[in-house]
Amino acid sequence: MTDRRRRLWLGLGALAVAGGVRWWRGQAVDAPSGVAAVLRDNERNAGFARVEGPRAFEFPRDHAAHPAFRHEWWYVTGHLRGDEAREFGFQMTFFRYALTPRAIESPSRWRARDLVLAHFAVTDVAGQRFHHATRRARAALGLAGADEAKPCLWLKDWQLALTDADAGRWRFTAATAHAALTLTLIPTKPLVLQGDAGYSRKSDAPGNASHYYSLPRLAASGELTLNHATQAVTGTAWFDREWGTSALGDGQSGWDWFALQFDDGRELTFYRLRRLDGSPDPHSRGLLIAADGSAQPLAASDVVMTPVRWWRSPRTRIRYPVAWRVEVPRAQLNLTLQSRLDAQEWTGDLRYWEGQVEVRDGNTRLGLGYLEMTGYE
Fold first, then answer.
1. Closest CA to 96 of 46, 182, 160, 171
2. pTM (two decimals)
3. 39 CB contacts (<8 Å, ≥6 apart)?
4. Can you give the pLDDT at residue 43?
5. What pLDDT sits at residue 247?
6. Which end of the chain is less packed: N or C, by CB atoms within 10 Å?
């Protein structure tokens, strides 16, 4: 959900401010100038398209970029098994953030309209290590891009692309000095639309919304390299897609989001928007997806999230709730989400917690998921 990642867009805005002159070498751009510019509707969003209601989705076209809107992302998380049944979590996210709604007219090929930022992480459960890296570049000179004609994202040699539209097959590859992952992803369940037929409102203000859909379960297979040792891996993945222009409304401080994959073939996803006083915002939403792919919408009142254990980052000193009780009475679900590694915090330009969790009912493991938390101090 575009606006559930408020801290991410806040950080992208900060990057645009801090790096705009340096990266664009004097190019005049309509970059955000602070927190308010990123989080509220104002003149800086003028000229960008707004999400004001449901739309008719067209695939595979809508897997590709939508440059008329200010920001969007392609977000993949998942769960892998390798040699000796060793378990791993992974995240691969591409963000596109437009600095101006206008096309750039300049003889210089260094000047660009968009920033591209990517996050790649591997959680080594047995080794209790969180390998993560951030890249960013202007969409110029072929350094990075989000293709409008075909679903393909790249940032140097990191790439996420739809390689077979008929089969829905995706491929991504990313590597750092300590971790490398190449995966093929094939959907095993149908795509689901979030919110009102893919129209996801974040506040009462007109235009504070996104177009939002998910691929809730994909088969994943490929190769993982950790510390120069390569192994074959298989597992499952979750794929989120969102785009829009506006930010969260006044009085909203952040969100807690999760996507859970149960061993019985069901999925549960929910984003809990938080008000400044910590209470849930009524625009919080989610889905309970049956094994046959049918989806039941969940409103803010349908899900109760309660923190049960906190962890303080030794690097940022931010406290995060890394274990939760999640209750969905209408579905007779009473779950515990427990981080598989507490130190799954992003500590670079964008500070937030995102990592793999285990889903339990008492002493019984029901599945795995990913949890994202922003707006904590």
1. 160
2. 0.89
3. 6, 10, 247, 248
4. 65
5. 66
6. C
- CA distance linking residue 32 with residue 44, whole number of Å: 7
pLDDT at residue 97, rounded to an integer: 92
pLDDT per position as a tens digit, 96-140: 999 888 877 777 777 788 999 999 999 999 999 999 999 999 999
Range of lowest pLDDT (17-21, 361-365, 367-371): 17-21
Instruction: Evaluate if residue 8 carries a pLDDT over 90.
Output: no
Tokens standing for residue 260: 């859970």
For residue 60, is the peptide bond before it cis, meaning its omega torsion is within 30 degrees of 0? yes
Q: Could you give the CA distance from residue 216 to residue 208 in angstroms, rounded to a whole number?
A: 24
CA pseudo-torsion sign 93, 99, 100, 105: negative
Both tokens assigned to 128: 């209790």
What does each C-alpha distance from 296 to 2, 56, 215, 330 come to in angstroms?
21, 20, 15, 11
Question: What span, in angstroms and rounded, lies between the C-alpha atoms of 244 and 252?
Answer: 18
Q: What is the CATH number of domain 2-374?
A: 2.40.370.10
Q: What is the pLDDT of residues 53-94, one digit of tens each?
A: 999 999 999 999 999 999 999 999 999 999 999 999 999 999
For residue 53 the two structure tokens come to: 């209601």
CA angle 343, 78, 216 (to 5 degrees): 130
